[in-house]
Amino acid sequence: MPRVALATYDPQGAPNRDRDLPTLAQALKDAGAEAHVLPWDAPDTDWAAFDLVVIRSTWDYTGRTEEFLAWAERCATSTRLVNPLDVVRWNTDKRYLGDLAAAGVPVVPTRYLDPGDTPDAGDLPGDHEFVVKPVHGAGARYAARYTPGERDRAAAHIARMHAEGLPAMVQPYLTRIDTTGERALQFYGGRLVHASRKRAVLSPGTPYDADKVPHPDLEPWTPTPAERAVAERALAAVPGGAEPLYARVDLVDGDDGTPQVMELELVEPNLFLWLHPQSVAPVAQAILTAALAPADRPDA
Ligand SMILES: Nc1ncnc2c1ncn2[C@@H]1O[C@H](COP(=O)(O)OP(=O)(O)O)[C@@H](O)[C@H]1O
Ligand SMILES: [Mg+2]
């Protein structure tokens, strides 16, 4: 019986916010696997005892990226990790958007400001709304939108991130998100399993350190051919040979009405299985297939 670990965050006694976890663990058991739900940073866990470690909802890593990547590396060298380590490394830093753009994928135009950089007039737009957020981000943490008149507040937000050692990114606020929302195309085992749509998360004036509703009005969505095409181009542009087991491509319309990649989620995407019960069995099967695949590690 294959042993699968589903890596999550430590909810510290509160209910786990990953609504997919119990469903997925049960589906894996039904499919004939052992499924163990474990916080990635739980001390003394013997990750090598699993045939496969699936990163699922390690949502507290964003302020601790180095620690998280060191854990991922330990898993990848002692057993099999999905997504693969190289994919995880590349995808925990949103500067990957630049690689996608270089490969011709339409992405939200982005500027990056590392700790030590001071934003100048060109970084914070004077003629349209913009968004400031961290390059290691999840759940809209530390994201906020600003008008040109709020550039001082934006600069203070960036300074706060820099003081915490967090590189920042600046994007135009894509106003069409207020009408057509954000679409998430979910791939598992190499195929599109389902898609969802949600409303805009950032409201004017909300402080960057306020808690936000990360998936407002989430609903099932039938992707358009244009959305599918952009998502597939983004996946084809992932560097390295290893194909990701899972991927979520988040798309928002640009000012011309065509979809742009806001995020390519290859680390810990929410799967939204509760909206898509038909996807539970195929997702569990794809995990099982990965767990049963012949070991490819040199020491096996
Ligand atoms: N450039 C943008 N234009 C409009 N909304 C944005 C923009 N960037 C982020 N947002 C909003 O903030 C949310 C979180 O940003 P996102 O880039 O998805 O980071 P995270 O990794 O935290 O999910 C998005 O779901 C979207 O609603
Ligand atoms: Mg997002």
Description:
This is ATP-grasp domain-containing protein. InterPro entries: DcsG_Biosynth_Enzyme (IPR053191). With 300 residues, this protein is of the alpha+beta class. It folds into two domains: 3-92 and 278-292, Rossmann fold, CATH 3.40.50; 96-266, D-amino Acid Aminotransferase, Chain A, domain 1, CATH 3.30.470.20. The protein contains eight helices and 13 strands. The strands form three sheets. It has a five-stranded antiparallel beta sheet with strand order 11-10-9-12-13. Strands 2-1-3-4 form a four-stranded parallel beta sheet. The protein has a four-stranded antiparallel beta sheet with strand order 5-8-6-7, covered by helices on one side. A hairpin with a 2-residue loop joins strand 9 and strand 10 (191-198). Helix 1 packs across helix 8. The chain starts with a strand and ends in an 8-residue tail after the last helix. The relative contact order is 0.17. The model has no long low-confidence stretch (mean pLDDT 95). Adenosine-5'-diphosphate is lined by residues 108, 131, 133, 137-141, 143, 171, 173-174, 177, 182, 200-202, 250, 262-263.
Label this structure with key terms.
globular; 2 domains; D-amino Acid Aminotransferase, Chain A, domain 1; 23% strand; Rossmann fold; ATP-grasp domain-containing protein; alpha+beta; binds magnesium ion; 300 residues; DcsG_Biosynth_Enzyme; binds adenosine-5'-diphosphate; 4-stranded parallel β-sheet
